[in-house]
Structures are given as C-alpha cells and as structure tokens.
Amino acid sequence: MKAAPFCYHAARSVGEIVSLLETRDSSTVLLAGGQAVIPALNRRLCTPSLVVDIANVAELTIADRAQDHVVLGACVTSSAVEDASVPDGTRGILACVAARSGPRTVRCHATIGGSLCLGDSVSDWIVGLSALDAVAEATSACGTRSIAVSDIGRSRTSAVASDELLVSIRIPDIAAGSWWGTWDLRRSAGARPDIAAAVLADARDASFRCAVAVAGRALIVLAYRDPPEDLRKVMGSGAPPSTEAMLDIVNDELAAAGEERATARLIAAALGRAAASAIRV
Ligand SMILES: Cc1cc2nc3c(=O)[nH]c(=O)nc-3n(C[C@H](O)[C@H](O)[C@H](O)COP(=O)(O)OP(=O)(O)OC[C@H]3O[C@@H](n4cnc5c(N)ncnc54)[C@H](O)[C@@H]3O)c2cc1C
Known about the structure:
Number of strands: 13
Largest sheet: 5 strands, antiparallel
Structural class: alpha+beta
Number of helices: 11
Order of helices and strands: EHEHEEEHHHHHEEHEEEEEHHHE
Bound molecules: flavin-adenine dinucleotide
Distance between the termini: 47 Å
Helix content: 25-40%
Mean pLDDT: 94
C-alpha cells in the first residue's frame, strides 16, 4: 500500500513550525525521523493533508554543554548519541540508552523527541531519560513549558499537546562513581521491549532513581533520597535477588502507585535484574 497524497513542507525554524501548529487542522503531521510516521502513512493509518518535516531545523538539532547538564535538540538522532557525536555528561549512560533503542537502521533516523512524543512508556528513551531525571521543553503559540520525561511515561499517551513542538531535552550530568543498571525483556533481538527497567544510584547525593515500564501500562518511577539498605546491597551485585526479596524492598511504593500484585511482582523482578547488573560509571 502507498501513502495517500499529501503536501510536504520542510520547515526551517521553530517559529515557523509553531505558526503552522497554531493554524493547523487535525490533518497536519510533524515528521522527525519518520520511523513511526512513515509506516503509518504507508498503511494509511493517518492521511494528513500536510506533512511538516522538522528533522533539519537547526534549533532542533542543537547539542549544548552547560555547567551541570547537556541540552539536546529534539531532532538529535539516537545514532548521534550512540556515536558520541554530541556531548554526554552522563559518563556514557546516554550512549548505552541510545544503542538499545531499536536496530541501527532505525537509530540512524529515529530522534529522541520522536520517541518521547510517541509516549510509549516502555520506550528505551522514556525509561532511560526518566531514570536520569531529564526534562523536556515544549513550545507552542501559548508559550514554553517544561515536562519531566517521567511524566511523559506516566501519561501513557503523548504528553505533548497537538499544538506543541517538543524542542529540546535537558539531561543532568552524572557524577563519577554513580551506578547505572538496565534490564529489559524482548520477544526478539530487534523487537521493542515488553518490560524495561533502569536504575541509577547517584554518587553526588547517594540518592536512587528507578524507572520501570510494562508495555501498555504507565511508567513507574521510584525515587529515594534515603534508599533502603537492601536496595544498596543489590546494586551491582551481579546476582538478581528473588522476586519476593525485591518486592519486600519496593512493595510500599508499588502499592502506593496502585499496582496489582501480579504486575508488582513483574516490576520488582525487572528492577532487581536492572539493579544487580549495574555498572559503575
Ligand atoms: C523496527 C523498529 C524497531 C524499534 N525498536 C525500538 C526499541 O527497541 N526501543 C525503543 O525505544 N524504540 C524502538 N523503536 C521506536 C523508534 O525508536 C521510534 O519509532 C522512533 O524513535 C520515533 O522517532 P522518530 O524520530 O522516527 O519519530 P517520527 O516517526 O517522525 O514521529 C513520531 C511521532 O512524534 C511526533 N513528533 C516527532 N517529533 C516531534 C517533536 N519534536 N515535537 C512534537 N511532535 C513530534 C510526530 O508527529 C509523530 O506523531 C523501533 C522502531 C522501529 C521502526
């Protein structure tokens, strides 16, 4: 099947895109890396009258180093992060997240912003950037606002409104001596994860931040300023704790998040595996 006819416009600036979004009808679509949009067009799952290509807008491909964080434009690709073509204040964690986010042929086109805007809680970028406590910036004719990436994952649909453009993502630096662990379950090597978890033990303030998602469900983020001793012991141990042992550690938080027992067990097991496989960065 081929896409239905549409007009194509290559945008040149954020201001131009915002104007188009302000006046657009529901049949205008933004095109970043196209890894989700193009198959949807070809299958006629969406039949827009106008496709606005945002991939080459300079403001959306920035990569700026600041004192304690990095700002990446929404249209920076996964492969640019993986190949260290952009600054990384996370001691290589970002590159690891990028390298997991689909096959290399997809990663060469797929953008961080596109992944976030799809709002799939189990996406590698949503889970990874949530554990890193990253914040996205979105703009529209009404102004600019910050959205925690974890809130995008919690919403289960795109938290970016239809008249908003996601412009950039601000990623805090990670201190030397921090621990980072991830684990996911996929049906096959090239498939999207069914469950994904990431755990960060931050050496700067000894805090812990865990993000875990099960496909089709909202992201869970657990943050500990004063982490349980048992969780510290699991970190980097190489031996995943039993599901029951991990559930004992995180059960209160999962119960507070309203998770049923069966899902809570799955989440606890995933977190245990991510924590046990952590490496020091
Ligand atoms: C074969 C395959 C395997 C994959 N495997 C994985 C995987 O293992 N892990 C994983 O995490 N992901 C995986 N993905 C998902 C892939 O990474 C995403 O589809 C991709 O990142 C979407 O980004 P994009 O730049 O291609 O977005 P596009 O397809 O261009 O856009 C996606 C959506 O976001 C909107 N959008 C894009 N950018 C913006 C913006 N700046 N502001 C507002 N709206 C915007 C678009 O209008 C569209 O609705 C896989 C995809 C494929 C095709």
